[in-house]
Structure prediction request, 206 residues.
Amino acid sequence: MSEMTNEDTAGGPASGAAGKIPMRDRILDAATGLFYALGLHAVSADKVIAQVGITKVTFYRHFPTKDDLIVAYLERRARWERDAIAQAREAAGGDPLGTFRIIAQAIGAESCSPGFRGCPFINAAAEYADPAHPARRVVDSHRRWFKQAIEAMLKEMDVADPALVADQLVMLRDGAMVSGYLSDPVTVGDALYAAIRAVTGFSGGA
Prediction:
């Protein structure tokens, strides 16, 4: 087992082992807030280092390049979204239409929350147009997963041409994220869910 310096965890002796936060997570936590609020290009490694209060040696031990940090930031967000959709499916008892409703409400709430700056993946794609860039590869991989997850639910609903409809629902989701700047959570969530029902052909009832 490699040695861990005092800088490799957060919290003093009184915090106890359970209260210590690994240094890699501390760096990633700080970078997440900065990247989302200011943009990927605008945040330098030095800015993250200053935010965490560590040395460059410690930073580069965990993230050899800034691109490595950006990839970790996007991968963390991708895991969060995958878990959120899995939880939505569980909360809906496996019902795909019910899952879409939960997702729509969650998007409405998130897009209207304080500090909201749009979809992290769309933001990253706007900053890194080169499809070969590591950040763009994470974005593209997650977007493919998201579309496949939607398509799988559409197949359960026996929707005609689920691949095409999945593309349409991804576009609706993207638009809802932008609409959040101008509307309230209930309006965005309800409008997105109504649009999902219309596109999928389940426009009647509640």
Remarks:
- The longest strand covers residues 9-10.
- Residues 1-6, 9-18 have pLDDT under 50 and may be disordered.
